[in-house]
Design a protein that fits this description.
Blueprint lengths: L1 H18 L2 E3 L10 E5 L6 H8 L4 E6 L7 H13 L2 E4 L4 H16 L3 E4 L11 E2 L4 H9 L3 E7 L1 H4 L13 E4 L15 H19 L3 E2 L3 H8 L7 H7 L2 H5 L18
Parallel strand pairs: 1-8, 2-5, 2-7, 3-4, 3-5, 6-9
Antiparallel strand pairs: 7-8
Helix pairs in contact: 5-7
Length: 263
């Protein structure tokens, strides 16, 4: 009820009036049935504008720390996230992470729309980074289509580290649904997971026009923060699928020199 009231009556109309979001390909979002909306991630506001322009409710997975805060502010934050169709994602690994991942499966099993950022965190410099394979695991295990979504210009509305947004127009492009039925039954194959993820990222690159960086955004952010990179091959072996899909909104500053190439 809170979600519908905010979207239709209070917050939604104001945001549409101020930011005048334009949309292409909205008819690519299924009118009914389960689907994953896999989006690039440029700004905190992506999680506001994307569901705003989709007629159906969109449920996102957010890191569990937003639901366990202490004090008045922590409780208020947790309440907002729960009322706005956000689900907690435990990224500590093991059984707790698997149980959190099940929440996303439950959304899809009930015929809902699940929003996912395959990059795992916001881009530090508006480029498109290597996708994590959690989105592939979910798509293959639940056997639902993946709709690629390109957010356009949201990094200018609310750059990393800026609390108050700038008023300017943003865009959203919904690509044609991606069908991965040819891989059904092979969801545990790491090479298949990587192939599916790369296909999703290629679709996002074409829709968004972003430069592609063959590196994880989290690695680049660690470099920017002076923590040093973790080798990609090590991440490929050890990353938990639940870490691959939960949004991380805690960001260092912008900039960096990630090596780039086109997909």
């Amino acid at each position: 009820m809170f979600y519908w009231v905010m979207k239709r009556i209070f917050l939604g109309p104001i945001l549409k009036l101020l930011f005048r979001p334009w949309v292409k390909g909205l008819d690519n979002v299924p009118e009914s049935g389960a689907a994953i909306l896999a989006s690039n991630h440029l700004s905190f506001s992506d999680s506001i504008f994307l569901p705003l322009m989709v007629h159906r409710p969109v449920i996102f997975l957010a890191k569990s720390e937003y639901f366990t805060g202490k004090g008045f502010k922590g409780r208020l934050t947790a309440l907002f996230f729960r009322l706005s169709n956000q689900l907690p994602m435990d990224r500590s690994g093991g059984a707790a992470s698997e149980m959190s991942l099940q929440a996303g499966k439950d959304v899809l099993a009930s015929g809902g729309l699940l929003g996912i950022y395959p990059e795992g965190t916001r881009s530090p410099d508006a480029r498109l980074y290597r996708g994590k394979v959690g989105v592939a695991r979910l798509a293959l295990q639940t056997r639902v289509p993946v709709v690629p979504v390109a957010m356009i210009g949201t990094e200018k509305v609310q750059p990393i580290g800026k609390r108050l947004p700038s008023i300017r127009r943003v865009g959203i492009i919904f690509g044609q649904p991606l069908d991965f039925s040819r891989y059904y039954g092979m969801e545990d194959d790491r090479l298949i997971q990587r192939a599916v993820t790369d296909e999703i990222m290629y679709a996002l690159m074409r829709l968004s026009g972003q430069e592609y960086v063959d590196e994880y955004a989290a690695v680049v952010k660690a470099q920017l923060a002076g923590k040093g990179p973790e080798p990609v091959h090590q991440l490929e072996v050890t990353e938990e699928a639940t870490e691959d899909i939960a949004e991380d909104r805690d960001e260092p500053g912008t900039g960096g020199d990630g090596s780039s190439r086109k997909l």
